[in-house]
């Protein structure tokens, strides 16, 4: 079953990285403790990267049917950044 998740990283003085996205609990579990690389999303030389940990994502309490309907229109990433799309595989 897919749920709506909120992602947030506080990147200090350069800003925050946030997003609302849809994923299963299994997808979240598999992504935890993996390297995430966003690149220079907060400006030149910002180089935003790190490990995705449990406190970075929060499941949003919203009706599952609503999640399905909105996902049909917006896709898996509703707003901002979906950290699952930036996981580094095989050191890349």
Main features:
alpha+beta, two-stranded antiparallel sheet, 20% helix, 92 residues, single chain
What does this structure look like?
The chain has 92 residues and is of the alpha+beta class. It has one domain. Helices cover 20% and strands 38% of the residues. It is built from two helices and six strands. The chain has helices spanning 25-31, 64-74, and strands at residues 2-10, 16-24, 35-39, 48-51, 57-60, 77-80. The strands form two sheets. It has a four-stranded antiparallel sheet with strand order 5-1-2-6. A two-stranded antiparallel ribbon has the order 3-4. The radius of gyration is 13 Å and the shape is globular.
Sequence-ordered SSE layout with sheet pairings:
Blueprint: E1 2-10, E2 16-24, H1 25-31, E3 35-39, E4 48-51, E5 57-60, H2 64-74, E6 77-80
Antiparallel strand pairs: 1-2, 1-5, 2-6, 3-4
Order of helices and strands: EEHEEEHE
Sum up the overall morphology in one term.
globular
Radius of gyration in whole Å, from Cα?
13 Å
Tally of separate domains: 1
Mean pLDDT: 95
Class by SSE composition: alpha+beta
Total number of helices: 2
Largest sheet: 4 strands, antiparallel
Strand order of the largest sheet: 5-1-2-6
- The helix content, as a percent range, equals 10-25%
What separation lies between the terminal Cα atoms?
A: 29 Å
Portion in beta strands: 35-45%
How many beta-strand runs?
A: 6
Uncertain ranges: none
Outline:
This protein is of the alpha+beta class.
């Amino acid at each position: 079953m897919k749920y709506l998740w909120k992602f947030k990283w506080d990147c200090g003085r350069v800003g925050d990285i946030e997003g609302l996205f849809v994923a299963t609990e299994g997808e979240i579990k598999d992504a935890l403790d993996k390297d995430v690389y966003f690149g220079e999303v907060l400006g030149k030389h910002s180089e935003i990267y790190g490990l995705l940990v449990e406190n970075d994502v929060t499941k949003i309490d919203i009706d599952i049917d609503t999640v399905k309907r909105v996902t049909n229109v917006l896709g898996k990433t509703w707003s901002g950044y979906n950290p699952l799309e930036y996981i580094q595989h095989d050191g890349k």
